[in-house]
Inverse folding.
């Protein structure tokens, strides 16, 4: 069973090391940082700071792109997406807190393409917990966790960032 | 069934949007918050989100309208819905087909949402009571009764400029008696906590019961506009007013037309709104309508975001399902 006492800052450092390697191997310069609301934005903010990126951080809210709208309706609170730059022909690092089914990432990519045609998208996540329902994989993960279906991992933040794993009875 | 309960399901969620009367502050605020999220869609490379993909919206306009119909159409298209515009004056109702038959015909074509504009008060309620469980209705103006999306785009415009509703002084000027906009705005302003709401008009254009809505009545424009933060000018609806009750248009403009000089008694940063279409030189001077205090064109843009928000809210509730998760 995974421990419930995870050092988030260590995971961010793991992500930074993984991204350094990824960007070098793929020869990608000056990438754009885009976080997915809400936890992904917190993680993206820290990476954005570590890279001292010149352009501001982009924030995506995928509420209008979810595939379960007709079942559960609108999310109660929707902070608008904010991409204060042109994504066309740029390399994008898409950042989320937890990668699970892959549906959020699919929605985020659909939304991203409505802003323009990125040159490439790299997916970086704090935690990859398995359980994919779509053919989507992370290029960089701070940690891999092997969780049961009844277990839930949640990032709280933004200051400090903390991961909590709970088990539903 | 009372007028407002038909708008909500058993969990208190909005399923039809027929009037601002009786809706909670929480629902009105949600409409404004969602509209804020949708407002950015118009500025993107691809001005669409896929929320209502595969849904069909029918604009049923029994009364002519340009800006309301086109902004509803644009809102539905920006949500990726398919849109039917049905001009009823030229369709089967003029051949004697009953309203119910028209509705059931459209339902048989699997329309999911009816946007209804009608000259009779209560028409949208009537239609909401007739349609199948999975069909939604939005009122785009019914007689003198209500125009709730106009009211909400006005609230949105006010909140963008002056976010603290409770401290505001707001004047609605002109043809209150024939105005569904005035009625819907007064209900929404009351619910959002505005305590100083004034209506300013000649006696002939003030409905008898208006004070019961929680407004102060003024017959003198200069007196009523003193220190107000927001001024909503209403169109003089000449087609609904007999010549006997009202002086000439020139005289009306002399007494109730908004000019730069009259504006000087209002708060220095007061905004001027008008639901359109404007009668220049009758209720408002061109210098004011086109001036820096005017937010009339912003109202039109905001109308798209508000209509997207309301459509997404009512279409996001499936019949008989549970509460929204998370």
């Amino acid at each position: 069973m995974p421990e419930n006492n995870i050092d988030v800052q260590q995971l961010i450092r793991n992500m930074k090391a993984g991204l350094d390697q990824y960007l070098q191997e793929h020869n990608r310069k000056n990438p754009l940082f885009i976080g997915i609301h809400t936890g992904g934005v917190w993680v993206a903010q820290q990476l954005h700071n570590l890279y001292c990126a010149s352009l501001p951080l982009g924030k995506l809210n995928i509420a209008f792109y979810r595939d379960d709208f007709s079942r559960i309706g609108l999310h109660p609170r929707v902070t608008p997406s904010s991409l204060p730059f042109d994504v066309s022909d740029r390399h994008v690092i898409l950042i989320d807190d937890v990668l699970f089914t892959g549906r959020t990432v699919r929605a985020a990519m659909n939304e991203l393409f409505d802003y323009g045609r990125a040159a490439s998208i790299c997916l970086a996540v704090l935690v990859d917990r398995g359980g994919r329902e779509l053919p989507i994989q992370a290029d960089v993960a701070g940690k891999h966790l092997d969780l049961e279906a009844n277990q839930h991992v949640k990032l709280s933040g933004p200051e400090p960032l903390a991961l909590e794993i709970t088990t539903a009875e | 069934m009372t007028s407002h309960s038909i708008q909500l399901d058993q969990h208190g969620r909005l399923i039809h949007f027929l009037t601002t009367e009786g809706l909670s502050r929480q629902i009105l605020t949600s409409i404004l918050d969602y509209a804020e999220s949708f407002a950015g869609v118009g500025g993107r490379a691809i001005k669409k989100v896929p929320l209502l993909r595969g849904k069909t919206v029918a604009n049923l306009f029994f009364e002519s309208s340009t800006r309301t119909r086109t902004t509803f159409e644009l809102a539905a298209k920006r949500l990726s819905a398919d849109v039917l515009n049905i001009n009823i004056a030229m369709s089967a109702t003029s051949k004697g087909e009953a309203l119910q038959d028209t509705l059931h015909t459209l339902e048989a074509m699997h329309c999911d949402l009816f946007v209804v504009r009608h000259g009779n008060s209560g028409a949208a309620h009537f239609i909401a009571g007739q349609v199948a469980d999975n069909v939604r209705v939005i009122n785009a103006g019914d007689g003198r009764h209500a125009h709730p999306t106009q009211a909400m785009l006005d609230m949105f415009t006010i909140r963008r400029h002056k976010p603290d509703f409770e401290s505001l002084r707001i004047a609605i000027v002109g043809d209150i008696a024939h105005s569904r906009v005035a009625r819907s705005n007064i209900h929404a302003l009351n619910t959002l906590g505005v305590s100083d709401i004034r209506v300013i008009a000649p006696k002939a254009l003030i409905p008898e019961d208006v004070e019961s809505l929680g407004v102060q009545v003024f017959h003198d424009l200069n007196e009523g506009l003193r220190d107000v933060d927001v001024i909503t000018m209403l169109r003089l609806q000449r087609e609904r007013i007999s010549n006997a009750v009202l002086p000439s248009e020139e005289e009306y403009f002399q007494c109730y037309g908004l000019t730069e000089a009259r504006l000087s008694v209002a708060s220095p940063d007061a905004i001027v709104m008008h639901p359109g279409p404007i009668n220049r030189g009758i209720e408002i001077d061109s210098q004011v309508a086109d001036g820096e205090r005017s937010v009339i064109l912003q109202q039109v843009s905001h109308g798209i975001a508000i209509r997207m928000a309301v459509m997404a809210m009512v279409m996001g509730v499936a019949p008989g399902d549970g509460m929204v998760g998370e």
Q: What stands out?
A: The mean pLDDT of chain A is 93. The first strand of chain A starts at residue 32 and ends at 36. The interface with chain B takes residues 61, 63-65, 69-82, 88, 110-111, 113-116 of chain A (CB under 8 Å).
